[in-house]
Amino acid sequence: MKKTLIPIFVACILGVTFGCCKKEPVPVSDGSENFVNITDVVPDAILEIRYFGTYNFVGTRIDGYLQPTALLTREAADSLRAVSDDLKAKGYRLKIYDAYRPQMGVDHFVRWGKDLADTLMKPYFYPNESKDSLFIKDYIATRSGHSRGSTVDLTIFDMHTEKEVDMGGTFDWFGRESHPDCGGNPETGEYRQNDTITETQFANRMILREAMLRHGFKPYDCEWWHFTLKNEPFPDTYFEFPVKEL
Q1: What is the pTM assigned to this prediction?
Q2: One of 24, 33, 177, 223 is an active-site residue; which one?
Q3: β-bridge mates for residue 26, sequence order
Q4: Distance between CA atoms of 224 and 172, rounded to whole angstroms?
Q5: β-sheet bridge partners, residue 90
Q6: Hey, is 246 helix, strand or coil?
Q7: Residue 20 has pLDDT above 70, yes or no
Q8: Is 232 a catalytic residue?
Q9: Is it the case that residue 7 has pLDDT exceeding 50?
Q10: pLDDT per residue as tens digits for the range 39-63
Q11: Rounded distance, CA 28 to CA 237, Å?
C-alpha cells in the first residue's frame, strides 16, 4: 500500500487490504464459532452500528446486519478488552461503529457503487467526490479486512462530559480529513498547525491510537478509526455469516 498519498487513502476507505504476495482469499459461509459478541468481552462498550441503521454512506441497512451488535474473533475481542481497561482508567469508554462485516455486506457496497443515480448520502459522507469515481479510485472493492473478523472501527466516549470525544471528523468520511496524519505526525504525536483539525482534536485521535497500538492492534494509513489485530487468526479467510447475537 505504499503508493502516493491519495491512492493510499482511496484504496482503504472501506477497509480493503492489497498486496502483491497475498494468498488467494478463502470464502467461508460460516465459522461463527470462532467469534464472540464484543459486549460479552467488553460489557461497557457503546454500540452504534452504522450499517444496521440508515445513517451511513449508503443510506439503508446493509445486507447481513440482522441485529445492531458487533462481533470479533476471540483473539481480537480479548485485545480490545485490554484497550478498554486502559482507557477506562483515563475516564473513557469505547464506542464501536463496525467490527466483523460479512461478505454479503461488502457485496452490497459494490452494488450501491454501481448505481450512479443513488447519491442520497453524498452531502454527508462524500461531498467532494463524484460517485462515478468510487470504483476508479478503489473506494469500493470486492474484499474488506473487516470480513476476516479482527478489524474494528471505533472511537472513544468521555465519561465525564458524557459525550463522544471530538476527533475532528466523522466515521466513514471520504476525504483527506480522515487520515491519521491529518494535522500532525501520528508516529510521534507531534501536532502540525493546519486549517483542518485542531490540536485538541489531533491529541484525541492519538489517545485512541496509542491505546490500540499498546494492545496489539495496527492502525490504518487512511482512517483514524480503523484498527486490525496484528496477529489476526484468519488473515486469508473472508466470512459470510450474518451479524447477529451469538
Answers
A1: 0.89
A2: 223
A3: 237
A4: 10
A5: none
A6: coil
A7: no
A8: no
A9: no
A10: 999 999 999 999 999 999 999 999 9
A11: 7
